[in-house]
Structure of Cytochrome C-552:
Amino acid sequence: MFATSHILRGALGVSLACFVTAASAQMAYDPMRPTPNPLMPVNPLMPATSEESTTESASAEVLPNPEFGNLPDAEGVEETFYQCVACHSTAIILQQSLTDARWDYLWTWMIEEQGMFEPEDEIRDEILTYLKTHFSSER
């Protein structure tokens, strides 16, 4: 540890030894858990652990449904899947984190500019609620 922190201190101009020690002290020892590397970038596609996030999104609590393109398996998944994959894959949905207002805007834009089929109001509301619940930057 001393040699590594000494090298890092010389290369970065700061000592990471106190950071690594403090982070290690906060986590309970688990021999099956890999030791975090503070120099490695965080993979944004990996689900956050309880230590990494104090708030959990709704999609983190819901398992993906492989039958519906790995969208979160919750009320509205089937309607959302069939409405959206008529034009694009679920991959574009899974990468989103939009405000509720942006989801409303995109819905209107897709209908008016892209020719998306407009379902009945009840189905529209269910799909938008699903998208806002699981892919919103506000939750």
